[in-house]
Amino acid sequence: MQRAVQNYLRHVTVERGLSTNTIAAYRRDLALYTQWLAGEGVDDPSGVTGNHVGAFVQHLGTREEEPLQASSIARVLSSVRGWHRFLLEEGHTETDVAHETKPPKLGSRLPKAITIEQVEALLDATRGDEIQQLRDRALLELLYATGARVSEAVDLNVDDVIDQDVVRLLGKGGKQRIVPVGSFARAALDAYLVRARPVLSRRGTATPALFLGLRGQRVSRQNAWLIIRAAAARAGLDIEVSPHTLRHSFATHLLAGGADVRVVQELLGHSSVATTQIYTLVTADTLRDMYTSAHPRAR
């Protein structure tokens, strides 16, 4: 069973070029699945049936210890279905036993953006001339200016900041895209690169990483989360703010300002415009609320 899982993970790593984070998620999902199968007495892929897959999905949502929400169950099932499809294609099984298993229905969830005023308060909470403040402001300004995923931001190297006003991001599946950097983010990056990064770099081993921790190492995704959470607390924001909140806000504010959805799709690195169009629903809801509160005949 474990050999079959490792073969699949090797396949998606080499053939599909998936990111390290995606592969790690696949590994966790399939470990959860194979452990459950072992508890059911199944120790070989050929012994798995469609009933097993269906029972596993039900187990995820009803187990006593931390039952999963529908979105998490759908993600795990996606990993399971990919593995069984691979087993069939490679001739390890005669049927795709997971093909008929459907994920639970997901509720319609709109991206959670914050207002421009809240973004400004968040960024203002990082003002200062200390090394850590210069770094934190550069990171947050860049996230909001580019709509980068947190993994894309922390994976940046110094050489990825090119031509003064653009940055090269490496997205899902190893796809590169060039995204403009506004004047505020550019100024924050310049201040960090000149006054803070050289100091941080001397504290650790040589690294091309753009954003460095206090010991001179590359900032991790977890550190980026903590940086944003701390800034939100200092700004007095009583809402949950994450790196993805800035990505959502980037897209929402662009569309509200009149940007074309296809342009926003390219900036975000979405493979399908349908993913980007979710943000148009957010702006439409905002317009509807404004109309309802302002028009004398709306209520």
UniProtKB/TrEMBL annotation:
Q: What is the lineage of its organism?
A: Bacteria, Bacillati, Actinomycetota, Actinomycetes, Micrococcales
Quaternary form?
Forms a cyclic heterotetrameric complex composed of two molecules of XerC and two molecules of XerD.
Q: Which Pfam families match?
A: Phage_int_SAM_1 (PF02899), Phage_integrase (PF00589)
Q: Which GO terms describe its molecular function?
A: DNA binding; tyrosine-based site-specific recombinase activity
Q: Which organism is it from?
A: Microterricola viridarii
Where it sits in the cell: the answer is: Cytoplasm
Q: Which family does it belong to?
A: Belongs to the 'phage' integrase family. XerD subfamily.
Q: Which residues form a coiled coil?
A: none
Q: Name one GO cellular component term.
A: cytoplasm
List, for all copies, the residue spans of the domain called Core-binding (CB): 1-88
> Which PANTHER family does the protein's record reference?
PHAGE INTEGRASE-RELATED, TYROSINE RECOMBINASE XERC
Provide a GO biological process annotation. cell division
Write the protein's name.
Tyrosine recombinase XerD
Keywords in alphabetical order: Cell cycle, Cell division, Chromosome partition, Cytoplasm, DNA integration, DNA recombination, DNA-binding
* HAMAP family according to UniProt: Recomb_XerC_XerD, Recomb_XerD
The active site consists of R149, K172, H244, R247, H270, Y279
Q: Which PROSITE patterns match?
A: CB, TYR_RECOMBINASE
What does the protein in this record do? Site-specific tyrosine recombinase, which acts by catalyzing the cutting and rejoining of the recombining DNA molecules. The XerC-XerD complex is essential to convert dimers of the bacterial chromosome into monomers to permit their segregation at cell division. It also contributes to the segregational stability of plasmids.
- Give every Tyr recombinase domain span: 109-292
Q: Which InterPro entries match?
A: CB, DNA_brk_join_enz, Integrase-like_cat_sf, Integrase_catalytic, Integrase_recombinase_N, Integrase_SAM-like_N, Recomb_XerD, Tyrosine_recombinase_XerC/XerD
Write down the superkingdom of origin: Bacteria
Principal location class: cytoplasm
